[in-house]
Amino acid sequence: MLSLLVLALNFESYRLGFITWSNTSFGHIRKKVRHLEERIVQLQKLPVTGEIATEIRECTGEIERCLAQEEVVEKAWQSRMA
To answer: What DSSP designation does 24 have?
Structure first.
């Protein structure tokens, strides 16, 4: 009976550690995406130059990378819970 209690406590500790790691490593993905989207809106209000177009492409690429990273984290979390 004691070993089950120890196992349950270890599992809870592992779960909380994973949540903390996930939040600190990836928790700001949505915030970053929102910031990048706002930046794109600001850039689109400016006269189009090569520099502006490049920055818009860079922001768009970073959004795509963030969303891919978020998907990886979500799949990892789901596999841990299964």
So the answer is: H
Residue 37's nearest CA partner among 56, 15, 53, 17 is 56
Overall domain count for the chain: 1
Q: Tokens 């600190």 — which residue?
A: 24
pLDDT digit string (tens) for 47-59? 999 999 999 999 9
Amino acid identity of residue 54, one-letter, is T
* Tens of pLDDT, residues 12-30: 787 787 777 767 666 688 8
CA dist 68 and 74 (Å) reads 10
Q: For residue 23, give its domain range.
A: 2-81
